[in-house]
Amino acid sequence: MTAPPVLMFDAVTYAYRAQPAVSEVSFALPAGQLLGLVGPNGSGKSTIVRLAAGLLRPQSGAVALLGHDLSAVDRGAAARRIAVAPQGPALPDAFTGWEVVLAGRAPHLPWWRSAGARDRGVARQALALVDALPLAHRRVGELSGGERQRLVLARALAQEPEILLLDEPTTHLDPAHQIALLRLVHGFARTTGLAVIAVFHDLNLAAEYCDRVAMLKAGQLCWVGSPERVLTAATIAEVFGVAMPVARRPDSGRPAILPPGPGRDRQTGRGLDVEPARQPANTRGG
Amino acid sequence: MKLAPLPPDRLAGLEPAASRAAERRGLAVLLIIAAILLVLVASVAMNVGKAPLPFRLPWDLLGTAGSGSSSPDLPASARTILLDIRLPRVILAGLVGAALAIAGATYQGLFRNDLADPYLLGVASGAALGAVVAFVLPLAAGTSRSVAVQAFALLGALLAVGVVVVVGRVGPAVPAATMVLAGVAVGAFANAACAYLMYVHGDQLLVIYAWLLGGFNVAGWDDVRVMLAPLGLSVLAMLLGSRTLDVLQFGDEQAATLGVRVARARLLLTCAATLAAAVAVSVAGLIGFVGLVVPHVARMLIGPGHRRLLPFSALLGGAFLIAADAVARGLPGPTEVPVGVVTAAVGGPFFLALLHRARRGSPW
């Protein structure tokens, strides 16, 4: 069960100018695992994704890819193992969906070569997997946010990575596509050993699909562990500063986080079989 | 993780180019059409000039080149006019147009900026300044003047583009507004320096001025020969880098996650495009708008993929400048109109239309 980690954060600290974004973050990501990052806005989730992608260099500590210091790994070699689906990325409007996805093959090609038969086949498969085949010859400029997001995921899949980094992959997607995407990624983790780090705002999706959840607050990793252990009423109250009752799903046994209602009396989830919401431990202003 | 490749027949017609062979065919067809256009334009241009020669069709021209000077219907003087005056002029215009257009297309892709072109970036003015320096510099005996002009033009062009990119960049991109402003400033400085050098070196004034005005009226085979090697090198580099240019369209950060070493790729491609532009300026002087207009027309016709865009731009640019030069030659008047006047007359209105569209935020 304990596969060696494909990606390892060892006391990683990164600050934008003087503002620390992540401090002393350590975790290991084994192959085949889906790790969810949760935390309030500005808690350092996207910074961790960019550090894991090698786009940022840790100011202290180190990120290791298969035992090698990531900042010393060649960009092309890193891109063959790590794929990123960034959050709301800017895409060239004049490109077709096909051109976007085919760019995912770039790391596998020498810079003077263009895509071959297998590259095209892989790009087609990637489009099919995210239900985006009809987008192949639409121009990006005329696509919706969710359609672009699926193209970016297809591009990441076309990279055939060992590590997939998803920054808020479900934000613009409708529920059917959210579930399809997470099932797809989960399936790849199980069958091919793909390791995934995904940033979530929807705690319920994180609870249901992740093997482990890492909860961040102000750039520090507060808890890492199974969804049942990390996503509790107490931790949510402390980290997010909001009282949310947490129930247990009868089907999967995973936590179900219930948004509190508009009135005070509806914040406790009375009448449900739930762990009662806690008032936030520290009620700092702001 | 590996994906099982999906065969093309599973989605008949969904993928724009269903197979590599189809794309190759498409690319080949486009290039052949553009090449035929180029040859047609060149053939017509061969018939334009002050000397009244009977209109000759392309195959007649070929025959002229092949046969000896004793061809019955063509006197030796006409043969000289066609082969040693008009032909090198047409070829040189084609090469310069191709160089400016492919450099413009590469700049536009590199800086993700619709307004990037050798002229607006200040590259052309920088190259001109370098060339003027080479004109007035006392050269060691045995040094070729045209090689010195090329080398100094390249130096000036690289300096200009370096300053524009360093000063104009905001974060990783070079936005249109700051780039144009920086380019105008660098261009103005280079032009002032040129004017000063010409003022100081009054004896060379006419030579330099005629060269600066641009054009091909004194073009000969030597000019063609001198630009072939550096132009070939830079065009080859740009063509090989066309897929990297495509990936750069996603922006620096996404390009990096797709395996591109962004800084290195940008440096190499900038140098290649600048070499092409500098070579063009050093043999033909300042000819504006070719590098701006042609890539946009090419993009409208065949889309943004640089694998097609770059060679297509080069062919269109060659045809455009050959045609513009023929118009400049053919317009009535006591002397020839500078070719830059013709390109600006076409390019100016086009540029305004481009600005108008850019302001409304509509891509092509």
Q: Helical percent range of chain A? A: 25-40%
Order of helices and strands of chain A: EEEHEEHEHHHEHEHEEHHEEE
* Helix segment tally of chain A: 9
The end-to-end span of chain A amounts to: 43 Å
| Sheet with most strands of chain B | none
Radius of gyration of chain A using CA atoms only: 20 Å
Proper CATH architecture of chain B: Orthogonal Bundle
What amount of the residues of chain B lies in strands? Answer: under 5%
Poorly predicted ranges of chain B? none
Widest beta sheet: strand line-up of chain A: 6-7-8-3-9-10
Q: Specify the structural class of chain B.
A: mainly alpha
CATH class of chain B: Mainly Alpha
Average of pLDDT of chain A: 88
**CATH fold-level label of chain B:** ABC transporter involved in vitamin B12 uptake, BtuC
Strand tally of chain A is 13
What is the CA-CA span between the terminal residues of chain B? Answer: 38 Å
Largest sheet of chain A: 6 strands, mixed
- The percentage of residues in β strands of chain A lies in 15-25%
Mean pLDDT of chain B: 82
Summarize this entry quickly.
Chain A is of the alpha/beta class and 286 residues long.
Features:
heterodimer; A: 286 residues; alpha/beta; four-stranded antiparallel beta sheet; B: 364 residues; mainly alpha; ABC transporter involved in vitamin B12 uptake, BtuC
